Amino acid sequence: MLTQPSEPTWKTVIRLLRWHKPAGRLILMIPALWAVVLAAQGTPPLPLIGVIILGTLATSAAGCVANDLWDRNIDNQVERTQSRPLASRALSIKTGIVVGVVALFCAAGLASYLNRFSFALCVAAVPVILLYPAAKRVFPVPQLVLSLAWGFAVLISWSAVEGGLTASTWWLWGATVMWTLGFDTIYALSDREDDLKIGINSSAIFFGEAVVAAIALCFIATVVCLGVVGIQLGLGSEFWLALVLATGGWTWQVARLQEETLPRPAFGDLFAQNVWLGFAVLLGMLLGL
């Protein structure tokens, strides 16, 4: 009887890093690109763009490995995550640690290209990223911790251009935190039943029956913060058109979430749609400067 050949190790490592699912990598990259484009007034240095893109890939990779190391004995009890390499024992803990350390070193090497202040922000972001999985066990809204980690992308990228932070930086940071909390709560809805069974916290559980309203408020706050940024920086009509389109997309998502029989895969689809909405806003920023 023929048996299926095992997956090559390099493919398993790719799955560990989540590089086979680009939506999660791109959605981290978008706020960083928002920041660098606005701070550089539409003409960021190409080497810096490269550092930001590669840096977000390395950082998200390290975060994914840390998450899977923390959750290897939990992920195998959740339908969506039970096939992850560490949960399914396709990779050993030792291999996971080695891959995670390599990813961190790559991120550190890229961060060394930045100025001292930006590098210090990179260092400050590391414990937030690595401890996010622990927040699921002790903090009722762990997605907020992830959102704060995402927010560092704005602070690092903006300061890499200007050497410091401005009021507009913080409004953009607020938009990023609220946007992340919104779309990651949508993502958490797909695991809500499993998380309840195994006793893991999530914003989808915390907000209970008001979860759709909470997501709506997150997206409203995102639009408000982005609007303030647009006013402060004097962005043109292209930005406002993009923001209107993104607002329409988020409104449609909230309406979709009100359906009572939404299948689990739909939550992942809604999450992924935020990549396109984020890029639409980025394009509006570029054209509106």
Description:
By secondary structure, the chain is mostly helical. It has one domain (12-288): UbiA prenyltransferase (Tetracycline Repressor, domain 2). It contains 13 helices and no strands. It has helices spanning 9-17, 22-39, 46-70, 72-75, 93-111, 116-138, 142-162, 167-189, 192-198, 203-206, 211-233, 237-257, 264-288. The radius of gyration is 19 Å and the shape is globular. Mean pLDDT is 93; it is low at 1-5.
CATH architecture: Orthogonal Bundle
CATH topology call: Tetracycline Repressor, domain 2
The strand count comes to 0
* Rg, Å, rounded: 19 Å
Q: What share of residues are in beta strands?
A: under 5%
Number of domains: 1
How many angstroms separate the termini? Answer: 64 Å
Q: What is the CATH C level class, in words? A: Mainly Alpha
Give the % helix: over 70%
Overall pLDDT score: 93
Low-confidence stretches: 1-5
- What structural class do helix, strand and pairing data support? mainly alpha
> How many H/I helices?
13
- Profile the largest sheet: none
| Overall geometry | globular
What is the CATH homology-level superfamily? UbiA prenyltransferase
